[in-house]
Amino acid sequence: MPGPSSGTGSLKVHDDIGETSAVAPQPVLAGVSAGREIAPRSRTGQAAAEEHTVVLTDVAIAYGKFTAVRNFSLSVQKGSFVTLLGPSGCGKTTILRAIAGLVDIADGEISIGGRRVDDVPINKRNIGLVFQNYALFPHKSVFDNVAFGLKYRNVAKPEIKRRVGKALEMVRLPGSEKKLPSQLSGGQQQRIALARAIVFEPTVLLLDEPLSALDANMREEMRIEIKKIQKATGITAIFVTHDQEEALSMSDQIVVMNAGVVEQIGSPEQVYESPASAFVADFLGKANVLPGVVASVDGLVATINLSAGQTVRALSPRAMPAGEHVAVVVRPQKLVVGSTTAGNRLSGRVVSTSYLGSSAVYEIDIGQDTTIRANTILNGGIMREGDAVDVGFEPGGCVLLDDAGRRIV
Ligand SMILES: Nc1ncnc2c1ncn2[C@@H]1O[C@H](COP(=O)(O)OP(=O)(O)OP(=O)(O)O)[C@@H](O)[C@H]1O
Ligand SMILES: [Mg+2]
Fold first, then answer.
1. Cα 208 to Cα 363: distance, rounded to the nearest angstrom
2. Are the CB atoms for 223 and 250 separated by under 8 Å?
3. 97 lines ligand 1 (CB under 6 A)
4. pLDDT tens sequence across 360-406
5. What's 288-401's CATH class?
6. From its phi and psi, is residue 155 left (phi > 0), alpha (psi between -120 and 50) or beta?
7. Which of 69, 93, 242 is the pocket-test mutation for ligand 1 (most atoms within 8 Å of CB)?
């Protein structure tokens, strides 16, 4: 995380690691958290639940005149796994920086463990950090890397040894204490970075795209690993990714961000099945968004003339007047290729086929330069470019957006 934070006073305190800062500036952040000052754990009931929650209220963060994040509010329950998901530049890292105390907020407030931390320096926030680039000290052994945060707090030597051993067991690298980072694979280095971040039992673990430097197989393995460790330790985790699959498979809650603002916060099912906007629908799973106009309404079933020239029926959560501009959002998986029985039928021509073994993804031209995507399990022959095809979907299998691209509720 390069940025304006690298010159903050809080970092200068730790001159002993200055020599490695050009290679790995981040370990300072993961290691220096000073323990329990901000979160006494003796209270009970509601107060205790609140203590261990990260809460951001109407937060704005600016770099000079550029406001990178606006009106950002989020409440992270103790022990939950929350993911910030969004395209490059939408402000995900900026939010983590603000939680960690690496960047000042221009507006709003942040609390960790029930206490407002706006003026609490990085080293008092008790935060574990894991980054994309591992950020291990290259000349220190695995033991010294993992022990860093504990030594900083003057934990007794035998206890450091015990805790480092336990953390290495947890990341499934027991006995690797004497190795150097260069003797480990990328995945193993990232496990060490994770061990270093959890060894001092932080109040919250922040993970900024920790899997993106790994190859596909290792990514999937680490995904499962991180989830297991988070569950086993009960640690509260805020995870950043722009990979929708990672977000869907790992999270209790997903915060979908776009250009510095929250588009939607919800469970993986909520954001996938009921996207709040065209942006969310498209970002999570490349949904088909078909603009049209309401032709007539029968109860809560609207008949919609699509701009593509065909007509469909869609279940609407509220009554809608004829003439209202809407968009019908339907997932590629909800389109049944070759269906003649579904409530809606769209006719078109295959423009491209991606064969994926057990399934295929078709791009289908349904007229007026409109292409839809259908993802279908193959149990017969495969369609080829130029083939005429009907696709079906049920009126209840879609979501309706209003003129502004927001879900109609
Ligand atoms: N130090 C900085 N100075 C000025 N602008 C910055 C700085 N750091 C980030 N920004 C800008 O703030 C916005 C949000 O950046 P941020 O790093 O939070 O995005 P991100 O969502 O983490 O993106 P990515 O997925 O690429 O990591 C971007 O427009 C970025 O250019
Ligand atoms: Mg980032």
1. 34
2. yes
3. no
4. 999 999 999 899 999 998 887 899 999 999 999 999 999 999 999 99
5. mainly beta
6. beta
7. 93
pLDDT digits (tens, 9 = 90+) for 209-230: 999 888 888 888 889 989 999 9
Given a cut of 50, is residue 208 above it in pLDDT? yes
Taking ligand 2, which is a single-atom ion, which protein residues have CB atoms under 5 Å away?
93
Closest by alpha carbon to 60, among 29, 106, 18? 106
Outline where DSSP puts E strands in 79-155. Answer: 81-85, 107-112, 115-116, 127-131
Cα four-point dihedral sign 165, 166, 169, 173: negative
| Neighbouring residues of 184: CB distance < 8 A, sequence distance ≥ 6 | 142, 173, 176, 192
**Which class is 10-273 in CATH?**
alpha beta
What torsion do the CA atoms of 103, 67, 252, 283 make, to the nearest 10 degrees? -140
Among residues 112, 99, 101, the alpha carbon closest in space to that of 53 is found at 112
Count of residues in the chain: 409
Q: For residue 407, what is the DSSP state? A: B
Among all chains, which residue has been given the structure tokens 């603000």? 98
Residue 109, beta-bridge partner list: 57
Give me the residue spans of the domains in the chain. Answer: 10-273, 288-401
Do 10-273 and 288-401 have matching folds?
A: no
Asked whether 63 lines ligand 1 (CB < 6 A), one says yes
Burial group, residue 354, by CB count within 10 angstroms (0-12, 13-18, 19+): exposed
Distances in whole angstroms, Cα of residue 112 to Cα of each of 57, 78, 175, 362:
12, 10, 34, 47
Is the distance from CB of 339 to CB of 357 less than 8 angstroms? no
